[in-house]
Design brief:
2 copies of one chain form a homodimer. Chain A has 400 residues and is α/β, with parallel strands linked by helices. The first copy, chain A, is built from 13 helices and 16 strands. In chain A, strand 13 and strand 14 form a beta hairpin. Strand 10 of chain A pairs antiparallel with strand 10 of chain B, so a sheet runs across the interface.
Chain lengths: 400, 400
């Protein structure tokens, strides 16, 4: 590698522009730590004239990022625009680095920790809070007593949620993409494409947050990846966790990843998950890794040696359940519900019925003992058709 | 580097023997991740016949570790016996790796995270729970209601405290050595040799743990390193922290490190601090780093370029204080204490006097507003001579 490294930055949104500023202000520090001088030779974005937080050098601006390679010699390119797929193999075949620390929990050096700091541990499970937008919304609903849609608007104003289409954060998709990256690195396996159990926070009602609070529980969107008898189980869904647990106290835009490995035991990493600062921190750690000539394998081991793991059948996924029924307050309704549960051998741990005298309705909250996903789905299906049950029952899993 | 790497392990105590077993069982995994075969060519300890958890190969045993180099070609040597000093410069001059991830918080990949995952962040502060023995004893005193010396005995039985001489864990020295390593890596500075404020948990009384509990506080031994106006401030001392804080809930043998950096924000890493498993995890991450040909600079930047930081004058260290006085229960004693505090402009935030009618004594607990270390020392000095004050007052700083 030469002593001067030519760098291109493609994408000049919030993250790209912050990164550019960091690169400019940290040139000396980077040279101190790696012995290499960096030189920004090309930048690219859709609009050259857009208002930006920092000034850009228009002389090195390219509207079309692919033209950069015709006009400049680029050693390292930062791509901060969006999704990229199948690049690990191309990178490995060409013996170049592909780094992506910023793709999971920006402020937490989790990918590097799995690939390096915890390498050779047998990781059995990795899980955590991987979507800052969802965690902010859940925390803020609890704190402000406001509805999902009101808090979403606030999150969009504050830049914590996409102003246009926040769907991918809210339906669990973003967290799920991160789970798949964590799985691949933790288990030395291919990025899986299995059908999975994925739920976001879109349907979380303030009412459930309040009831959870009374039960000393809190709702968190968890991403979970686990090896179960050699099968890969990946999921994202809202979980009820204890208010006194570690994960129950990770609030706002914070992310947290918990890793269970042998021989290390339980390792916890927590930090800001998104935003230009934490993301730039991750991007610069990638840069330093490359400049120091560190490992070239994007996924820690050669792509050819990655395992293909069979999927765990999520029908067998076992949890205690929180169920909320909104019902007509008349004789026989409760017994219909409890009989149905009994038929499926789902045993009740706790039941709270709260009448609403005014409109002759009642709320029934049931916490069950453990049961499987399949059993639960079969059991609950019937309630959708019952005219005494006024809405589809709410189901939230308790985290074990 | 050859494809087969010769390895020596010096020290076959709990950690060394666990490491040896890990090396043997993870040979394939290491080859998968690095392309290198490892070959254990020499082991050394004082006693060949000592009872050990795993069998050792006596054919490669050396009583004197220095003889290893005469008889075997060694590429990588694991030293798991004790302290080593000034090695970074020797390693750098000879262009060989010196890795020491296991020296701070075994199960937490903190050194690698600072050198790599968070590299180029401007770190302003790093602190945490760095001594598992002390943290276990404090947690266990609270949980079991037993005295320091009883819990220490229990810790020794369980292998959490050195059976012979646990002093270096209990007087803060061990945590302090870790603080100095964290400082050097965080601030790119030389390992400091400044005189510092260092207190351990030896004098923590069950009585203070109980009173703290009533005040919704908990005592934790914190190691703290901070840049204050460009001066280095390093300290280890017991701190009162809120029971609801993150750090207040890190219990037992767990370690935790909190890092404040720009632009990353606050990063938290938690894991088991000691024991053969977590320590072996750290040692193997060092091995992989070397086998993959990663950075050679032990302290992240060249030894010649490390800064010498001036010490922060710890007389200016400012804290709220918890003071406990054991006094004769007679008129005028309280006013003597409060007058003295007033003279030094130490203002009282909270005062609780509890009489013990039986023996005509009383306990006075005072929580003060913030004051400097110097002011506090000057103020308290007089009480040591006062015959109405029956013991040297207890002082514990509140963590800001």
């Amino acid at each position: 590698m030469n002593n001067t490294i030519n760098i291109a930055v493609v994408g000049l949104g919030q993250v790209g522009i912050y990164l550019l500023n960091e690169l400019n202000t940290k040139k000396k520090d980077i040279e101190l730590k790696t012995g290499k001088k960096i030189n920004i030779v090309a930048i690219s974005a859709r609009n050259i004239n857009k208002k930006r937080q920092f000034k850009i050098n228009k002389k090195i601006f390219f509207k079309n990022p692919l033209e950069i390679f015709n006009k400049s010699k680029v050693d390292i390119l930062f791509e901060v625009i969006g999704q990229s797929d199948g690049l690990a193999k191309i990178a490995e075949n060409n013996n170049v680095n592909l780094e992506f620390e910023a793709s999971v929990a920006g402020g937490i050096p989790i990918l590097r920790s799995i690939k390096e700091g915890l390498a050779t541990n047998k990781i059995l499970k990795v899980y955590g809070i991987l979507n800052g937008t969802s965690n902010y919304i859940l925390s803020e609903m609890e704190n402000s007593n406001q509805s999902f849609s009101d808090v979403l608007k606030k999150a969009q104003k504050l830049g914590y949620a996409e102003p246009g289409n926040p769907k991918l954060d809210l339906n669990g998709f973003d967290a799920f993409a991160k789970v798949r990256i964590l799985s691949a690195l933790s288990f030395n396996s291919k990025i899986s494409k299995h059908k999975c159990l994925m739920e976001g926070i879109e349907k979380i009602d303030l009412k459930d947050i309040k009831i959870a609070n009374q039960l000393d529980l809190r709702i968190k969107l968890l991403g979970i990846s686990e090896l179960k008898n050699g099968h890969l189980f990946e999921t994202v869904h809202p979980c009820l966790v204890s208010k006194n647990s570690y994960i129950g106290n990770v609030s706002g835009v914070m992310n947290a990843v918990i890793l269970e490995g042998k021989p290390v035991g339980e390792s916890i990493l927590q930090g800001e998950g998104a935003g230009p600062g934490p993301t730039s921190s991750a991007l610069l750690s990638d840069l330093l890794s490359i400049l120091r000539g560190n490992i070239k394998k994007p996924l820690g081991v050669s792509v050819n040696k990655l395992k293909s793991l069979k999927p765990y059948n999520f029908n067998n996924y076992v949890n205690s359940l929180y169920l909320r029924f909104e019902v007509k307050d008349k004789p026989g309704v409760l017994s219909k519900i409890t009989n149905r549960l009994a038929k499926y051998k789902i045993s009740v741990k706790r039941l709270i019925q709260t009448p609403n005298k005014k409109d002759n309705k009642a709320t029934i909250v049931i916490i069950t003992h453990k049961t499987s996903e399949l059993n639960c789905n079969n059991c609950l299906s019937i309630f959708k058709k019952n005219k005494d049950i006024l809405k589809t029952p709410v189901l939230i899993r308790l985290y074990n």
